[in-house]
Amino acid sequence: MRILQVIDTLGPGGAEDVFVELAAACQRAGHETVAVVPGPGWITDALRRRSVPTETVASLGSFSLGYLRGLVRVVRQHRIDVIHAHLFGAGIYSALAGLIARVPVVITFHGLVDVPDHEKFLAVKTMAARRAQGLVAVSEQLKTYLVPRLAVPADRIEVIANGIDTARFLNAAPVDLHAKHGIPVGARIIGSVGNIRSAKAYDVGVRALRALRDAGTDAHWLIAGQPDVSREIMTALELEVRRLELEPYIHFLGFVDEPERFLASLDAFLLCSRSEGHPLALCQAMTAARPVVATRCGVEAFLTDGREGWLVPVGDSDAIAGALRSALADGAAARGRAARDRAVAEFDSRAVVERHLRLYARLTKLPLSAPAAPN
User: In the CATH hierarchy, which top-level class contains the domain 2-163+348-364?
Assistant: First the structure.
């Protein structure tokens, strides 16, 4: 098959990671794969490191005829058999391009924020998205959210969870985070991975750390993620950190190149989000056998409270602090091991890629396996 992977963001981020790894995996499976990106940046560099051919189609404004024409051009130039778009914006354009070029389209929705209630021209955009032959949600909760918003029957949306290269996170070598970030020996290190966005609710995590330290736990929190573009959320977060006198104990790291080594070095992993689809960082932390504390933000299908980690109510900083105390205590490693076993069994990328390829084959009516190279 000739597969076009489309996204209109530059990353880094969870959806972008999935996009890059899926494009590379389809190519490794022997299928001709091309990725459309909006310009130079992290995602373009990541694709090139994996030798995935890229085409640049810039997207400008709320509706860009030039972007649509560019997608159609790429589809025809590469004689594409199936288009797979990631996120709502790219999905709308891809659905229209597929209609024009008579090529089946798959749209993957990665989170609740993909189709916000305040989206401009939402009715028109969802009507365009419904033109896609394949609609994918990364979790059952997200599917439930999407059905009324897209106005489609439930059986029109297939659930395919995100996958990761579990081997990469199973036995990664840790780094000395104490020395690297000037943290006293003996202090416990909590970590989070995710860009500074409203949905991540890092402000709640800040209050949780204050409660945790007030209860006598010497803990530092390391946040691996890029600030929001406007820096409004980041600025408010920094003000809250100063107000609660936590500057020495909260470390904003920006983008981390080797998340597997970062996660391997943590005493506990925190996901304090208000909403999630299927966060890659959670799967990665589970695979690394970290004690995980997460809010009930949409991850309940992936993490069982009391078995693989601790689940607490969204927005409850005191509950987060209490769960972190337990996660940092002796004996917490048992839940980390259970999390690792579940992640390896359920979230390995090989099975996820196979499901995507089967979906493409069903829509195109082409063979699942790529043809063998001629002798």
Answer: alpha beta
